What does this fold into?
Amino acid sequence: MGTVWAQQREDLLSDCIVSPDVFIPMVDRLAVFAAPYQHVLETEAGQRNVHLYLQGLLSHLAGKNAEDIATFVDVQRQVMQEFIGTAPWEHRPLIEVLVAQVANRLGQPDGIIAFDPSSFPKRGTHSVGVKRQWCGHRGKVDNCQVGVFMGYVSDQDHALLDFRLSLPEDWARDEQRRQECHVPSAIRMPCSRNSPRQSPMRW
It folds into this structure.
């Protein structure tokens, strides 16, 4: 039965493959859509590289990492790495633009805000908040990150609006790991053992 199910799954997935060429005409339209988000980014480099990054994500590249995208859009690797991983920027203004767009374009009288905790498996130990913990995606304790997601849902449409990544206490107390993964200093450390216990940090 397992073999039959696996074959059926592969047949279904093969019908779902979409060539990246389909997205080529969308790049310019997506650039117009992304313009309000670019305008609220703090740095000129961030504003300039959004379109290039989107081009890479919609490309035929097998791996969508910074190095491959930089080569594809013909910029230096460090430019794209800094934009994706280390350049300082504040995501709250981007969320505000998104919420306004969802309200204006998708808002319906029957719309609701839904919250959903979710986990996503990860390999290694360097992604922010990753550790062995309950992973609902796999139905067991496993190496993963955990987040809480907020979405808009109506009878017509749905959209993701915001999220918070859980920062486990052992992560929050590890200053070296925080610095290596660029956890903002504004994310508070847990209280001392003699103080009242706090809930896990939320980022």
